[in-house]
Amino acid sequence: MILANALFGAWLLSAAPTAMADTCQGPIDHPGEAFSYVQPINTTILSPYGHSPASLPSPNMTGNGGWELALLKAKQFVNTLTVEEKSWMATGQPGPCVGNVLPIPRLNFSGLCLQNGPQCVQQGDYSSVFVSSVSAAASWDRQLLYDRARALAEEHKAKGSHVILGPVGGPLGRSPYNSRTWEGFAADPYLTGVCMEETINGIQDAGVQANAKHLIANEQETQRNPTFAPDANETTYIQDSVSSNIDDRTLHEIYMWPFANAVRAKVASAMCAYNRLNGSHSCQNSYLLNHILKGELGFQGYVMSDWGATHSGVASIDSGMDMTMPGGFTLYGAFWTDGSYFGGNLTRAIQNGTIEMSRLDDMIMRIMTPYFWLGQEKNFPSVDASVGPLNYDSPPDTWLYDWKFTGQSNRDVRSDHNDMIREHGAASTVLLKNERNALPLRKPGNIVIAGNDAGPPMQGPSLRADFEYGVLAGSIGSGSCRFSHLSTPLEAINARARKDGSLVQSFLNNTLLTTTELTWPLWNPQQPDVCLVFLKSFTGEGEDRTSLELDWDGNAVAEAVASHCNNTVIITNSGGANVMPFADHPNVTAILAQHYAGEETGNAIVDVLYGDVNPSAKLPYVIAYNESDYNAPLTTAVYSNGTYDWQSWFDEGLEVGYRYFDAHNISVRYEFGFGLSYTTFNLKDLKPKCSAPSKLTALPAKRPTEPGGNPALWETVYTLEAEVSNIGDVDGFAVPQLYVEFPSSTPTGTPPSQLRGFDKVWLPAGKKRTVTFELMRRDVSHWDVTAQDWRIPVGSFTFKAGFSSRDFRAKYDVTLIKA
Ligand SMILES: *[C@@H]1O[C@H](CO)[C@@H](O)[C@H](O)[C@H]1NC(C)=O
Ligand SMILES: *[C@@H]1O[C@H](CO)[C@@H](O)[C@H](O)[C@H]1NC(C)=O
Ligand SMILES: *[C@@H]1O[C@H](CO)[C@@H](O)[C@H](O)[C@H]1NC(C)=O
Ligand SMILES: *[C@@H]1O[C@H](CO)[C@@H](O)[C@H](O)[C@H]1NC(C)=O
Ligand SMILES: *[C@@H]1O[C@H](CO)[C@@H](O)[C@H](O)[C@H]1NC(C)=O
Ligand SMILES: *[C@@H]1O[C@H](CO)[C@@H](O)[C@H](O)[C@H]1NC(C)=O
Ligand SMILES: *[C@@H]1O[C@H](CO)[C@@H](O)[C@H](O)[C@H]1NC(C)=O
Ligand SMILES: *[C@@H]1O[C@H](CO)[C@@H](O)[C@H](O)[C@H]1NC(C)=O
Ligand SMILES: *[C@@H]1O[C@H](CO)[C@@H](O)[C@H](O)[C@H]1NC(C)=O
Ligand SMILES: *[C@@H]1O[C@H](CO)[C@@H](O)[C@H](O)[C@H]1NC(C)=O
Ligand SMILES: *[C@@H]1O[C@H](CO)[C@@H](O)[C@H](O)[C@H]1NC(C)=O
Ligand SMILES: *[C@@H]1O[C@H](CO)[C@@H](O)[C@H](O)[C@H]1NC(C)=O
């Protein structure tokens, strides 16, 4: 998705008419016409990833799996449309929302409003800012994920959004330098898959369509779009977007995995990504869209382009893309473009037989079936007039259609969601270090607050240009939010301290805190009971991170304060991983990673600091000792001028995140799944609930495809249980986790531990309970590239249960398939 408020490079231009179609994508040559920008691919350079194999034609939807009735309604609707209406339904238009499908008044069809984003109603005044997706993932709490999504969708619906452009299943976080990890969930396909499913269920149960994005392997921002020469209105192609080159097994077991969960949750739509996959643009990669998404996974909804990710008409349509966004007649940055590969060109292509009418009908049925399935034709709230002027993608002066607004404007859609957001903010704060009983605080008499992340933003809470001052509770880009209110740590701690009668002194200027001229200690009296240091990393769409250090010299601020305060607590607000050298400082007694925690960030951190909430969140990625310890660096430059030279080789295969650190025995500062509590838990007696099934076959029985693929993959084949106990003296949530070590017969490259189950359970002090881990067929299978199916390998599995990816308390060995 594009940035709402800033011009970040070439996406603006990527719909320019000189873009080419991939030659491998089937019948796409129509010389001299709009669809004919075909350039030869130099296979010497690209081999073996010259392009994805063609997979044509695009499968028709069937309605299988619960959409049968809605499909009938969609068919009837399509039968009443003219070809022009059909073409424009597949083509966006400037209008009040980020994406708009035109109304058809004669059919009482009010059009479709597609809105950002995964954390809020981006264009919503009087709306809430929820915890970011990475925060939600860190909670490891299915109910939290569902509740958050449902409340978010209720607000969207009340503002008139039919479609939420989220959740984000990619970037997955192959590299911690990716700047959109906060919009996604976890650097692990299993956890991300669960998060996708819960979020989609929450959104769609509220009657709003979800959109699984970005398909696929959009793992870096650098060169995510083609670059153009700054001449001839920047229409000359210099270099194409980066190609993520991924082998078949890795695609299935890592990057596609969470999208399979999304499809299984009956997600209404999927968004094809900016980057190429194996040399072919994601939005015209027929192998990806036709073969894998619509074929293998049985996806029944529609594929829409990321904003400006369409590079062809016929090629994209034949390859399985169903809707182009933002579509026609759109203001691109500084100038207008009046063209769309779809729209009128699509009508002409139908009329002259280049595209079959049945393909266009399938596109519209895919778009309208979720609409009817969710009952959006009945009493759906009108688009709130107030969203239009807040729309930076197509502001009102770009509108061509005379959009009519009914109903109240500036609707307050917040309800009492702030209570939930505060709870979620605390539930998603990860306690990484806690020594000398630093936390929870016990009515400290003398508090120092330090760091530029503690106070209010100095340039307003939304869409700021400069993020130096103020707590980071969200970020920029299509996932950005408009805060209606923001609880800052400074304000929340002061309020709490006033109740306790504590003294509070604050020092919010990082530059000042790190100058040498300063006379330390700054505070008086000289020994504070606690120094709370708020630091941050700014990460946002469009520009990858170049460092994993805290920004604005955060590490130096931590060191400076800690060298004068023997009880220094560091709190970070970051979009993903930071290296934390200060963790070794003896005066740093506690560390909390809060990520981007939404509008109640200040109150939420007070709840954790003061022990009103016992922390229970766990890292959804690895914190390494050194930046250089991470693998899979981004492709940040190419040293040749060829059009297709931007290649990102996913040669690490399955060794993504903790899988890599484990495979190479690299010690880490804080491992995936790690997070402390104010109490202590134990886990023991991992054992099967019932004996291993005797009739299990290595390959699943072939059954008709449903959303998610072969339904046999989602069936429980084996269940383990373990006993978890709270052996400390504080009530709290435990997060028992189950990892699998595959048998030695599994093809090489299989990581030593892979998450395959988790639960979040409430345990009062001194209590114990049994937790169960249900393993589905997919969980104990690997993708067999020869069989093109999921295979349970022969030999002995080791299941490992505990409280992180490196803290196993019990193991169990079992053979599911005998040699
Ligand atoms: C393709 O790339 C190779 C390697 O860079 C080069 O030697 C060859 O001339 C190129 N072929 C064409 C047709 O450009
Ligand atoms: C990408 O190329 C690799 C290597 O040839 C192949 O294993 C994989 O199936 C391809 N995937 C797609 C989607 O083209
Ligand atoms: C889709 O259905 C139409 C009939 O409605 C049929 O003509 C066409 O061949 C089908 N396409 C595919 C790919 O099965
Ligand atoms: C549109 O709505 C009007 C008023 O409710 C109704 O009379 C008319 O039949 C509807 N038309 C269609 C095509 O549904
Ligand atoms: C650039 O765009 C402007 C405005 O649309 C147009 O007048 C001009 O001819 C264009 N120049 C080129 C070189 O395409
Ligand atoms: C068809 O596509 C061409 C090339 O992108 C563009 O110039 C033209 O405006 C398009 N026509 C319509 C009706 O969108
Ligand atoms: C059909 O129309 C499309 C869109 O205008 C054009 O690209 C294509 O060349 C036309 N094909 C024929 C055979 O006329
Ligand atoms: C922060 O401190 C530096 C160094 O003393 C100073 O130059 C700067 O103006 C201060 N910033 C603000 C916002 O006060
Ligand atoms: C820890 O803080 C105390 C002040 O409370 C200071 O005297 C001491 O030097 C600090 N230790 C280190 C290692 O900086
Ligand atoms: C910090 O130092 C003071 C004495 O100056 C001591 O009373 C206090 O316990 C120390 N705090 C910690 C957390 O070690
Ligand atoms: C981190 O990297 C530095 C420089 O390469 C090295 O000296 C240090 O030992 C590394 N630390 C750890 C814990 O690996
Ligand atoms: C790329 O092209 C530029 C301009 O023609 C040239 O100066 C540069 O040397 C080229 N770089 C490479 C690596 O070929």
TrEMBL record:
Q: Which Pfam family, any one of them, does this sequence belong to?
A: Glyco_hydro_3_C
Q: Which residues form the signal peptide?
A: 1-21
Q: Which residues cross the membrane?
A: none
Q: Does the keyword Secreted apply?
A: yes
Pathway, per record: Glycan metabolism; cellulose degradation
Question: Origin, by domain of life?
Answer: Eukaryota
EC number(s) per entry: 3.2.1.21
- Please report the stretch or stretches of sequence annotated as the Fibronectin type III-like domain: 734-805
The listed locations are: Secreted
**Recorded GO MF terms:** hydrolase activity
User: What keywords are annotated for this sequence in UniProt?
Assistant: Carbohydrate metabolism, Cellulose degradation, Glycoprotein, Glycosidase, Hydrolase, Polysaccharide degradation, Secreted, Signal
What's the name of the protein?
A: Probable beta-glucosidase G
Q: Which organism is it from?
A: Aspergillus cavernicola
